[in-house]
Specification:
single chain, alpha+beta, about 15% helix
Length: about 220
Amino acid sequence: MKNFVSFLKNIEAAKVISPEIEYSEYVALDLSVTNSELQNHTLETAQDYEVFIQNQLDLNEGKIMFGGYIENRNLYKRSSVFKNPDTEERNIHIGLDLWINEQASIFAALEGKIHSFQNNTALGDYGPTIILEHEIADFKFHTLYGHLSEASLEGKKVGDAIQKGQQIATLGLPPINGDYAPHLHFQIIIDMEGKFGDYPGVCSEKTLSFYKENCPDPNWLLKIK
């Protein structure tokens, strides 16, 4: 893991959304349970979050909000995907979110090939999702792009070669994107554990130590601020 993290930190930064937007126009977003500011807002529906995020962007003169890696959130309580009586609640986010209130263009972080894709349609899930497989410098790993448009899955085939910086998708809108304000969930995954078109993007406290190893911080690759 240590060698892989060093590899991520030392390769050229990648932009995965609207590359014409400079990192200086990105604004950090804290959606954690410890952010008392969130208590001053009604945040229940996708539309509530769209308004909140746009207000934050306007206030900070930004264009994209980012954050969320290893963030404990209340955002998932409405969905049985994450909270149901038969399993431990999952509420710790293990990817990085890039929020922008439009159907922005999405680009491959690195060269590779299509590992898998599918539409994860449950409320609160990813919606349309693409997973790429990469083999670089003796490391094999994957990048996941979630909350896409349905059109993003059209014409795709498992094994298709993908170049770094190639447009692979556009963002989806609610409710198609899992019913969230428009954003990209970007995640690095070392071992897919046999999964296809889907991989957990939120974990429980009990499983956090495993997922921190298997899903390192995406910002080591993106290098935002």
